[in-house]
Amino acid sequence: MPELPEVETVKRALEPVLAGRRIRRMEIICGSLRAPVRSDLPELVANRQVKEVTRRAKYILARFGHGTMGIHLGMSGTIRIEPARAALRKHDHVQWLLPAGVALRYHDPRRFGMVFWSDGDAEHERVANSGVEPLGPAFNAALLAKLCAATARPIKLLLMDSAKIAGIGNIYASEALFRARVSPLRPAKKLARPEAAALVRSCKAVLRAAIKAGGSSLRDHRYGDDRLGYFQLQHKVYGKAGESCPACSFPIARVVLGQRATFLCPHCQR
Ligand SMILES: [Zn+2]
């Protein structure tokens, strides 16, 4: 599932192709995604110029003068930038035709993604209800300490609660907790203030490192590569059960928390 750094990478790839350009035509091939794509969306965006491409939480937002088109990649969504003359593939559900024979194609085998619209300056409800942006200044030790004090849930589940903190998924939550030396199982309430501060720093650091890795994957990105935004970051604990902890050599453990595989060093993380 794409997490914040992957979405940021896709946004950065779309920016030079979309921002300042006019969408010639939009086509809905199959609009039954997680929420149905509005059938009048093609009319709303046809021959309109995209003013700006931004990201909020895991939503990619194309701002027009008269509203905003949002894209969420769901579980398996990808966007390809390719020549419009290239054949559509199975599971290509929406396409946008741009000047100079370029097409953007939204591909999503599991169809958990979304393409939506909000009028004027209003933010779509889904976007407006997102939690704090983890790379922004509002995500700081004071805020995390406040969120922690309010819940006895394990800290990893709080980090992954997108209504509280946007876009930190399973992989980056595991990695950030390892760097901060905090066990994912620790009740959030029991976090000391310096630990909250360390965890904020480590969340920002792992996300930034992943965005940087995504940026380098973009430089190597071939035109029409359908894995836009997916890249391999060197994980320290995620997916490494049984391997040696890079800090202390103790074997990395795998536990299941909130139905998700969680990786930790039981020696370093308390
Ligand atoms: Zn260790």
From TrEMBL:
State the family named in the UniProt similarity comment for this chain: Belongs to the FPG family.
What PANTHER family does the annotation carry?
A: FORMAMIDOPYRIMIDINE-DNA GLYCOSYLASE (PTHR22993)
**PROSITE patterns reported in the protein's UniProt record:** FPG_CAT, ZF_FPG_1, ZF_FPG_2
- What does the record list as coiled-coil region(s)? none
Q: Key word DNA damage present in the record? A: yes
GO-annotated molecular function: 8-oxo-7,8-dihydroguanine DNA N-glycosylase activity; class I DNA-(apurinic or apyrimidinic site) endonuclease activity; damaged DNA binding; zinc ion binding
Q: How is the cofactor bound?
A: Binds 1 zinc ion per subunit.
Among NCBIfam families, the record links this protein to: fpg, PRK01103.1
Q: Where does DNA bind?
A: H91, R110
Q: Where is the Formamidopyrimidine-DNA glycosylase catalytic domain?
A: 2-113
Keywords noted in UniProt: DNA damage, DNA repair, DNA-binding, Glycosidase, Hydrolase, Lyase, Metal-binding, Multifunctional enzyme, Zinc, Zinc-finger
Description of how the protein assembles with itself and partners: Monomer.
* Residue span(s) of domain FPG-type: 236-270
List the top taxonomic levels of the source: Bacteria, Pseudomonadati, Pseudomonadota, Gammaproteobacteria, Candidatus Tethybacterales
An example GO biological process term is: base-excision repair
What is the active site of this protein?
P2 (schiff-base intermediate with dna), E3 (proton donor), K58 (proton donor), R260 (proton donor)
Asked if Transport is a keyword of the record, the answer is no
This enzyme's EC code(s): 3.2.2.23, 4.2.99.18
Role, per record: Involved in base excision repair of DNA damaged by oxidation or by mutagenic agents. Acts as DNA glycosylase that recognizes and removes damaged bases. Has a preference for oxidized purines, such as 7,8-dihydro-8-oxoguanine (8-oxoG). Has AP (apurinic/apyrimidinic) lyase activity and introduces nicks in the DNA strand. Cleaves the DNA backbone by beta-delta elimination to generate a single-strand break at the site of the removed base with both 3'- and 5'-phosphates.
Identify the species of origin: Candidatus Amphirhobacter heronislandensis
Cofactor dependency: Zn(2+)
Full protein name: Formamidopyrimidine-DNA glycosylase
